[in-house]
């Protein structure tokens, strides 16, 4: 299409670009969150049109829409599932030389 681009902007803004792709594909209608391509577009304008828009991850945050809940307390100790591996046989079967040629 005639655009010249290098990988520099991707190297310098990899986290922003990743988050912009997530925001372009994420919706949660119950929480009023809709997908938006505006952040990918800003990135691409810098890449392809040589614009100098500031790329900040904080602008993509969905602030105030989530209430982070604490994880439920399911007990501090992990169950003991045994430390010893079961004995499933000492010697492996010899499969060398068998079925060298597959038939159809």
Model description:
The chain has a domain at 9-60. It has three helices and no strands. The protein is an all-alpha fold.
Question: What topology emerges from the helices and strands here?
Answer:
Elements: H1 8-12, H2 14-25, H3 38-49
Arithmetic mean of pLDDT: 79
Q: Tell me the fraction of residues in β-strands, as a range.
A: under 5%
Low-confidence stretches: none
Strand tally = 0
- Listing every helix as H and every strand as E from the N terminus to the C terminus, the arrangement reads HHH
Secondary-structure-based class equals: mainly alpha
Sketch the major β-sheet: none
End-to-end distance, in Å?
A: 48 Å
Q: Radius of gyration over alpha carbons?
A: 26 Å
Estimate the global geometry from the Cα principal axes: elongated
What descriptors fit this protein?
single chain, 104 residues, mainly alpha, 3 helices, 28% helix
At a glance:
The protein is built from three helices and no strands. With 104 residues, it is an all-alpha fold.
């Amino acid at each position: 299409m005639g655009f010249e681009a290098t990988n520099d902007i991707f190297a310098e803004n990899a986290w922003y670009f990743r988050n912009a792709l997530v925001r372009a594909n994420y919706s949660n209608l119950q929480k009023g969150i809709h997908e938006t391509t505006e952040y990918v577009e800003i990135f691409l304008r810098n890449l392809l049109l040589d614009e100098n828009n500031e790329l900040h991850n904080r602008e993509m945050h969905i602030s105030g829409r989530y209430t982070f809940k604490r994880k439920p307390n399911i007990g501090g100790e992990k169950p003991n599932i045994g430390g010893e591996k079961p004995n499933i046989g000492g010697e492996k079967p010899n499969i060398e030389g068998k079925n060298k040629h597959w038939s159809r």
